């Protein structure tokens, strides 16, 4: 008798989930037109949502393949952001690459070197952590709670390393102040947000193509569906796990760098504070479902940003937390959860 | 030399030993059925052959090579395929993607094999882009068979392919199995529908409590009054 229970959430479920997203945004737009909400906050909330989406998709990937809640995802973001800080603030200027104010942006072209490098370094760190820690635990057959607690320990450890190296002060990437874009209806957008939006869209599209068009990507989805069947099909699931870590950590590093640009500051606690946003997005969208994570992230981003119209921005996380609790109470499978 | 020779396999889950020294053999191109009551270790035997359960003792020799204790992803490269009893498709992948996963270890161009498989399973051919999760129970079983055949294996291990299917579907699954066998694939079958399975089989084994109980030609097992009384429901 097989004991493998059929999973209900899939990495890439049917597209119908997107209809609910569209409906949701139409609703939000209608609300905006009745000028209950500042349109500007909604628009900029979408950019925050894009950052959340990158982190949340990584969280969802790890959950789908490794089957545990990766509590260090936020601190992966922090570390990625600080690695880019080292590159942008120290290493690249030391090599004579010093530039800010590329086009309308506050930063310069070194970001196009620093971001890919930060992604690669974080991917390597994640694979290293898997080989030294998680793989040993898997071989001992530990449960998902132990794995989640291990990642909590790692989260604290990584943050500690950031604090030891960079201290507790706030930092910024080298930047120039730039004028905001003035759009109709009083919407002002920092030009950096366009970079954030385009980068996020690009990565999501690349990830989608990877998961649906490449052999390894399809094998990742197969492993998420049914590990045993993947193995008897000849898929090396350890290899798939390494790909999962690399992708998730790369997405986290990007999210971290973009968050550092979005907030125009880096602090060691930035990723940890952001973790609740990621979990809120994933839970709202349905755990382990990538479309859901994307949709959930946009909703959380907009809701958090809009809340600042009435609340202190420090409460953004609280809004995400409340949405997460409500989602768990009303639909534990996620608002956008789709079952096959 | 037998295609597959399993000798004195001892295996189980954790502390629990399920198989206490089981031996079977299957010749090139034959169908062999293993019958026995629930809990007799039939499924565990297939898992032990395929590396999903590590044997504590004993040997698995396939085409003259010792494959004992290899991981499943290594075993599948030796030329055998395995269809588990349940959860034997990837529900969120399309039918085409399921078959591609069946050919995962192939590095050559398998498009021709894919078309052959679609000819063999015309029901699947019309629904290549559909999610496998939308298939009916019988179609899922067909897809599971098709996935396992993508490697053009010399031996197919089938764990209760008729489980949970309507009597009509059971017939077509057995027909398909016979067709696969006529194309030259040896089949090791674990079945609850012992009567139908033994009729197809050149040889049958009866397992009980993790040990070999009886072995004989399929027809002779069917004619054996003890087997009929104990395992075929009179």
Number of domains of chain B: 1
Which value, in Å, is the CA radius of gyration of chain B? Answer: 17 Å
Going by CATH, the homologous superfamily of chain B would be P-loop containing nucleotide triphosphate hydrolases
**Main β-sheet description of chain A:** 2 strands, antiparallel
Strand order of the largest sheet of chain B: 6-7-8-3-9-10
Residue-averaged pLDDT of chain B = 92
CATH class category label of chain B: Alpha Beta
Number of E-state strands of chain A: 2
Biggest sheet strand line-up of chain A: 1-2
Overall strand count of chain B: 10
- Give the overall silhouette of chain A: globular
Measured as a percent range, the helix fraction of chain B is 25-40%
Helix content of chain A: 55-70%
Domain module tally of chain A: 1
Poorly predicted tracts of residues of chain A: 1-7
Could you tell me the CATH topology label of chain B. Rossmann fold
**Main sheet properties of chain B:** 6 strands, mixed
Descriptors for this entry?
heterodimer; A: 340 residues; mainly alpha; two-stranded antiparallel ribbon; 12 helices; 2 strands; 2% strand; globular; disordered N terminus; B: 234 residues; alpha/beta; Rossmann fold; 6-stranded mixed beta sheet; 4-stranded antiparallel beta sheet
